Task: structure prediction
Amino acid sequence: MKLNEARVLLTGASGGIGSEVCKQLLKNQATVFAVSRNKQKLEASFSQADGQLSKIEADISTQSGRNEITNELNTLRANVNVLINCAGSNQFSSISDISEQDVVQQVNTNLVAPILLIKALLPMLAKQDKAKVINIGSSFDSIGFPGFSVYSATKFGLRGFSESLRRELSDTNIEVSLVSPRATKTEMNTSTIKKMNKELKVKMDDVEHVAKIILSGIHGTGAETYIGWPEKLFARINRVFPSLVDGAISKQLPVIKQYL
Result:
């Protein structure tokens, strides 16, 4: 599918990666239905956008928010043929310190919401000649990392769902793919995380680089795309020889605990 033929529902459009994805979609003449909980932030970021962009204020983690999205798309006769689930929530914390509310919030935003949004949009996607669902995972969807246990759980779940759904829909017009960035320079990664990553020599990508790879998934055919080296290698090793990754991360644990 060419980018100028894409009619994209993009969640998390006012966030770091999502905002850049939106900018690059518009630059490539795609039609974008941008979803954010904060419409003012959307307005500030895309005040000069023309008719290619429609802004939808909704909280995807709630049923009412998802209903608002589908109702708005039907009103606009959107005929969406691409869904990019870019919204996400993260908190760097030990499991003993994280609140129950924050656990539920991450699970709802990162896992429950994309599953139910896809379910709601399947009838619309099925009517298109070709359609794509692109879920945004993380290097932590294959590598469980201390301090990100809840986040990793949601992303592991999203990877499993994406794989299952891809196979379930393999005889339809809808393709499902997963793009898994490593650490990225966004507000989601706090100054504490950035300091820890620097000490651990963990590389962080620019949002422009990540967004270009996400967009390549619209006209590409890859089922899973992992961004960054050596994270791409570690993800594969962890699936076959997790004890090797256990040992490597255990050596980093004293540094990690300094920042928790």
Residues 104 and 208 are 30 Å apart (CA to CA). The first strand starts at residue 7 and ends at 10. The chain has one domain: 3-259.
